[in-house]
Design goal:
The chain is α/β, with parallel strands linked by helices. The protein is 26% helix and 23% strand. β5, α4 and β6 form a beta-alpha-beta unit. The longest helix is centred in the middle third of the chain and has 17 residues. 47% of the residues are buried.
């Protein structure tokens, strides 16, 4: 009723996306998770062509190519399924593409999103070897990439991790970042208004104080309550799996957000 959402950014190398179906609210029976980010697809560089492309490792590929088993059940329960895009230890960087490469990469991502029936893309600027290469800029051009993605996919979500080169955005062709970036997701424990980083973004798009379940860095109940009081959009959990998804951790979120405790029903291990 308060409008906050819970985003599960799931390390697909270690976990089955279906495990997000195991958590519901005690009284209403509603599912706790609103979005599942498949973490992560990559942006890579083709040395022969000099272009960037979307690369997906064997785990992401397995999930995508078996969408009826791993993606469709989540969407049928009202969850959005998002493809994460992460740099991958080469010169391809989602923050330094030329305008033309931004357009080309956005169209490639659109094709992938449509092919696998996904609900959007999420960018995380880590593990990139920046440099003065042909087809790349020496300045941060992430805003252009996000703009081109929203232009190519106006009905899909475009999301950014508030970290490194994706930690802020600027106006593109008269459009403020809040018009082409739907959610800015804060790093672990970080809590601040993002109006200066993403001008024009509504508070509902600002995801605060993320948790790292694998390391046990969990949002407190008081911090979750502050999210509600301040009118922000929700929170994110990273790396949920059967070994760390304790109900007590979810209660820190769901009791302040929805006034209900969490119930776990079943478990899904990685099965490939």
């Amino acid at each position: 009723g308060t409008g906050q959402i819970v985003i599960s950014c799931q390390e697909t190398n270690d976990a089955n996306p279906l495990h997000n179906l195991c958590y519901t609210l005690k009284e209403s029976g509603k599912y706790v998770i609103d979005q599942v980010i498949l973490f992560s697809g990559n942006i890579n560089y083709n040395v022969e062509t000099g272009e960037v492309y979307n690369y997906n490792n064997e785990n992401i590929t397995h999930v995508l190519e078996n969408r009826d088993k791993y993606i469709k059940p989540l969407q049928e329960k009202g969850m959005k399924v998002i493809l994460g895009i992460l740099c991958n230890h080469d010169r391809a960087c989602c923050t330094h593409l030329s305008d033309e490469n931004c357009r080309k990469f956005a169209l490639e991502l659109k094709a992938k999103v449509e092919a696998y029936g996904l609900d959007g893309v999420f960018f995380d600027d880590e593990y990139c070897n920046r440099g003065d290469y042909p087809g790349f800029t020496t300045y941060n051009n992430f805003s252009r990439l996000a703009y081109e993605c929203k232009k190519a996919m106006p009905d899909k979500l475009v999301q950014a991790y508030v970290y490194s080169g994706t930690g802020s955005a600027s106006e593109v062709e008269g459009k403020q970042p809040g018009e082409f970036i739907d959610y800015g997701i804060q790093d672990y424990g970080r809590y601040s208004d993002l109006s200066g980083s993403y001008p024009g973004m509504a508070k509902s798009g600002m995801i605060q104080a993320s948790s790292e379940f694998a390391r046990g860095s969990i949002i407190s109940e008081s911090r979750a309550r502050q999210i509600v009081t301040d009118g922000y959009g929700g929170t994110m959990i990273f790396s949920l799996n059967p070994g760390n998804g304790y109900v007590s951790r979810f209660n820190n979120i769901t009791v302040p957000f929805y006034g209900e405790e969490t119930v776990q029903t079943g478990s899904y291990a990685k099965d490939w």
